[in-house]
Amino acid sequence: MNIRQIAGMSPNYYEISREERNYAAIFFAALCKPGNAEKFLKYCGFESIIGPEFGIYFEYAYLRDMWNHIIGEEPRKNIIRNKLQINNIEKILSKTPIEINTIFGIGGKTSSAFIQNPGKWSILKYNQHFPDNDDFLKICMFKWSFNIKPDIVIHLDKDRSICIEAKYESREGSYPATDKEKGIFRSREIEYVGQMELQKYMMEELLGVKTDFMFLVFKKEKSATHKVISWAEAFGAIEMKDMPKFAIEMAKIISGEA
Hints:
Layout: H1 3-7, H2 13-16, H3 20-31, H4 36-44, E1 55-58, H5 62-67, H6 73-84, H7 89-93, H8 97-103, H9 123-126, H10 133-145, E2 152-157, E3 160-166, E4 174-175, H11 179-188, E5 193-194, H12 195-206, E6 210-217, E7 227-230, H13 231-236, H14 245-254
Parallel strand pairs: 3-6, 6-7
Antiparallel strand pairs: 1-2, 2-3, 4-5
Helix pairs in contact: 10-12
């Protein structure tokens, strides 16, 4: 017997799904339907004219992907130099790529040819090289920014965006994530970094994109830092009739209509 038989139930997955990314993906797909992005933006009070630089992106990983397109080590060094601004950064950047990668604790195979993606830096390893708490936290924020992937980012143009974090029941997340990393933060007496704080740092400080931040939630709560909209409002603002049945049913469930 399989588990469904043992449990005496065999629902379609859409009937039981609690996966936030699944609902976010359904909403993303619906936004890509003609006219829906304009409807949603208008409902939320944003500019709803779609220009040539407009785009909607799911699990947005701009920094990670841009790093792979940079040619040469000097631009990479300049990014680290200008955005980290930690003690002894010039001394660190005067070293070879493999030495720089080692100082920041690249896990796995360390490249001797180029400075690797900061998202691969290891807190457990670079912790020993940076005793100053301010420097340590700056490095952590920089590293995390290359790893985080906001659920949905709507670019009105290259310099203006809306960052949407989709929630089912969970609250705003925080960093670091692992028990060992949290132990380092506790031993240093450094507070954890909130999800929205990190997203704001990534979008506005590192990328230079003016951004509005939004939570998409089942039950609305007030927030002083970002717009909050319910799933019922979001799906109610757009047209779902051309979406597949399972997507329509999921929209009803997360909207509290099922």
